[in-house]
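Shift notes (night). Ran ALP1 protein while the centrifuge was going.
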Amino acid sequence: MGKAQKYVLLGDATYPLQDWILKPYQEDENLTQRQLQFNYRLKRAHSVIENAFLRLKARWQILLKCDDCSLELLPTLVLACCILHNICEAHDNPFNEEWLEGTEPTELPKPCQPAPAAMEDNRAEQVRELMCQYFESCGEG
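Came back to this:
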């Protein structure tokens, strides 16, 4: 869209809108088609990420038991699993669907209430609007 953007994290409606956290528009009857499309694409991206983490944990089940390793080792362990996982995925190493049986998607605790409006960054709306325009220009999908 002609403006350089930095990386962003995907959040749900409970997170404050920041220029580094994208969150969906609040669902109501006033959303435009463009905003609905943005929410849909954000939700799709979020599900891709969840699936990737699920596959990572299924392939490297040591990540399910990280509570029995030292905190100093943990970042190295996670990084090693991510690197090995990406190598396996890049080389079409077969993924055994049975591995998923031991790894149910776990819901991480999330805030129950949306973040107060005072925590939201006004500049972040510009970022979300640029992403909305970008998604609109990409067409359906």
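The mean pLDDT is 83. The first helix runs from residue 33 to 59.
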